[in-house]
Write a structure and sequence with these properties.
Blueprint: H1 8-25, E1 28-31, E2 41-46, H2 53-65, E3 68-72, H3 75-80, E4 89-90, H4 97-109, E5 115-119, H5 138-144, E6 150-160, E7 168-176, H6 184-203
Parallel strand pairs: 1-7, 2-5, 2-6, 3-4, 3-5
Antiparallel strand pairs: 6-7
Length: 207
C-alpha cells in the first residue's frame, strides 16, 4: 500500500495554500459545530462530488477538530497529486489483499485519539444532486479493524451560488452516536437520514 509521508515544510505550505484557495475561490464556507469526545479519534464519512471535498474537510479539521488529518484515496490520485501524501493521504497500491491491508491500516489509525480519518463511502465521484448516498463495504472493514473507540462524524457538503459570482460551500455535520452493533445497512441508513435533513436545510436557504 501507499503510506502517508511526513515533511513539515510541505505540510505547512499546502495547509496555508488550501486555506488560501478556499478563501479565494468561495464567497463563503459555512459549517455546523459538532460536539465530540476529544479523547477519541474521528472517522468522517462524507459525500464525494468534487475535487474540493477533501480540501474542505482538511480545512474544517484545521478550524474545528484539530486532529492529525488522514484521508483514504485511490492509487491514481495518490500518484497523480504528489503533495497529497504529505497531507495524510494513503491508498491501496493494488487490488485484492492490498485493499484489505489498507482498510486495516485505516482502522489502526483510528485507535489513536489524535487522528482523524476521512473516507468517502461512495468510493467514486458522484453528482452533488444525488438523492441517495451509496456505501461500499470497505467502510465497515475500517470500523471493525479498530477498537471502535471513535467519533463517527457524518458530513454532507453542498455548493450553491445564489447571487454571488463565487460559490458558497455548506458542510452539515452530525456526531452519530453509534450503536454497539453497527452494520453497513444501518450506517448507510443513518448517514442518508442526515444527508436528507441537510439537503432540506440547504434548500431553505434564501439570499
Amino acid at each position: 500500500m501507499y503510506y502517508p509521508k511526513k515533511n513539515s515544510f510541505i505540510y505547512n505550505f499546502f495547509s496555508w495554500y488550501i486555506q488560501f484557495i478556499i478563501k479565494k475561490d468561495f464567497s463563503k464556507f459555512n459549517h455546523d459545530d459538532a460536539v465530540i469526545n476529544s479523547d477519541a479519534s474521528i472517522l468522517v464519512l462524507c459525500n464525494h462530488f468534487s475535487w474540493w471535498d477533501g480540501f474542505l474537510i482538511f480545512y474544517l479539521n484545521k478550524k474545528v477538530f484539530k486532529k492529525q488529518f488522514h484521508v483514504l484515496v485511490n492509487a491514481e490520485n495518490y500518484r497523480k497529486v504528489g503533495f497529497l501524501k504529505y497531507l495524510g493521504a494513503f491508498a491501496p497500491e493494488n487490488k485484492g489483499k492490498d485493499v484489505l491491508e489498507t482498510l486495516a491500516y485505516a482502522g489502526k489509525l483510528l485507535d489513536d485519539p489524535q487522528n482523524l480519518v476521512l473516507i468517502f463511502p461512495q468510493g467514486k465521484l458522484h453528482s452533488n444532486h444525488e438523492k441517495n448516498i451509496k456505501f461500499e463495504k470497505g467502510v465497515m472493514q475500517v470500523i471493525n479493524s479498530s477498537q471502535k473507540k471513535l467519533n463517527i462524524i457524518f458530513a454532507a457538503i453542498f455548493i450553491d451560488y445564489f447571487s454571488e459570482r463565487k460559490p458558497s460551500a455548506y458542510t452539515y455535520l452530525q456526531n452519530w452516536e453509534n450503536e454497539e452493533y453497527v452494520s453497513l445497512q444501518l450506517l448507510k441508513s443513518e448517514y442518508n437520514k442526515h444527508y436528507d435533513q441537510s439537503l432540506v436545510k440547504q434548500t431553505q436557504i434564501t439570499e
